[in-house]
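tool_log.txt
---
The assistant was asked to compare two proteins side by side. It first ran the structure predictor on the initial sequence, then on the second. Raw inputs and outputs are pasted verbatim so the downstream comparison step can read them without reformatting.
(1)
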Amino acid sequence: MLVLIDLQVRFVACLKAVELIKTYKRIIMRSWGKIILITIILVNTYFIVDVGRYFIYPDLAYLKKNCPSKTAFMEYREKVWQEKGIKRKITNIWVPLSRVSPYVMKAVIIAEDDKFWSHDGFEAMQKALEKDIKKKKFKSGGSTISQQLAKNLYLSPAKNPVRKIKEAILTWRMERQLSKRRIMELYLNVAEWGDGVFGIEAAARKHYGKSAAGLTARESATLAAVIPNPRRYRTDGTSRYVGNQSERIYQIMVRRGIVIPEYDDVISEKDENSQEIIGQQDQTVQEEGEQKVESIQEDQNVNSDLPDMGKVQNQ
């Protein structure tokens, strides 16, 4: 009898323990549920604030008449150098679009964004995002000049969906607040053309020892070809990709009438002919001068041989 009573007591105690455990479990699950819910809310809030601020920040209207002193990409390069202990400085020289060879703009548009003048900068990005989502990867870079400008000015080289959304917002705002000409002018002045070399003027001096205004069609095509990876691709003819790509860009410019291959030959022939004509003229002038000098000397000699008329009369 006592054994049965003891078993009943133990059984009741076990039931109470199980109930207590269930109660604690429910409390814990509710607590974890609240923690997870709070975490989700905080993450979403941070995401909304972090991304949403680009609808009003930065002030893109400032870029209508002003040039940024330093871009996000420039700061990123400096940070990498500092971490690696590399002592190097950013090279960047701003020039107006009027002091840039027209071949540069044509070559860059062909290489990077052939529909630059007709699209709003957002259509191409939408296609790139759709392509990334299908492949479940985010490898498509800034496929339009406006996107690349937004990324270079304010974002990082990171490839993730959050940055893509920020880039989309900035591109949308930029296309509505800045003219196409101004977007091109800004882009050519902030694009990277080598490790720490930013802007077309610095690139022209670095790679060709001349100003951006003096770049030829082939030089412009070569510089446009290195934009996708300016720290890897070289303009000295050692990169097969750059050689093939620059030739493709150049031939497109020829087909579109942007470049007339014979023009340079004609100009050079004119220069050579002009130099020959000038040389012949100089030689002719020199010969005429020598003849005049000889004629004067002969006249002097003749005069010296003639007797003095005054002396003859006196005699």
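(2)
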Amino acid sequence: MAVKAGNAARRDVEQHPSAQSCAARQQGLTVKAKMLEIQDLHAYYGKSHVLQGVDFNVGEGEIVSLLGRNGVGRSTTCKAIMGLVPPQGSVRFDGEEIARLKSHQIARKGIGYVPEDRLIFSGLTTRENLEMGVKKVGAQARWTIDDAYRLFPRLSERAEVKADLLSGGEQQMLTMCRTLMGNPKLIMIDEPTEGLAPQIVSQVGDFLLSIAEQGISVLLVEQRLSIAMRVSNRVYVMGHGQIVFEGAPRDLEADDAIRREWLEV
């Protein structure tokens, strides 16, 4: 299946992504250094061929969104990268092939993963959940619990509350911040805004922009087109287990045919 690319999909910039303004992100400018590079990725559930030759990349400090209808393989792509589903093909992270590593080895390389079901430790407090995300106690950390509280002050207010008593939005904040405690170079976030109130959705968008400004790469799987278009450097659209479009947000916005065929319900 041919991939349709927007006009600005391959434009490069020389400055570090942390220096890019939000306006530059909206223009779809991309970066040169590839933090994650996926080539000819296949994955199966039993005899079902879910991923059928997926190709894409995420640059250093770049936010890339993976869009598409439910069931096209976006979540499976994240699971294959993370080693939770056996991948076939090439998965290169920070210049190293990781396709045959185990999930815990991939995490130690610097990939953080926020699944769509959040997976909090319900019997622990908010603070204890954040502490569980620390990769190595005593090591110098890029992200601290105080940083998490700064990004989401509501977590500070709820620090001693058991996680199962938090609202859905608070649990989503907690899961994303807990992943940051492991100091990832790249974070994959699956459907972070599902079921959240508009105000929380806006906070999630601001959170993604904040961590990208610190040089962390983001692969965002998102159903809500508005947030993906606001925060992304580039977007990919999936259909039937393949990439069917790549480009800047403005390219997708201008392509009515792609949106109608692959995104609109």
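---
observation on (2): The mean pLDDT is 88. The longest helix spans residues 198-213.
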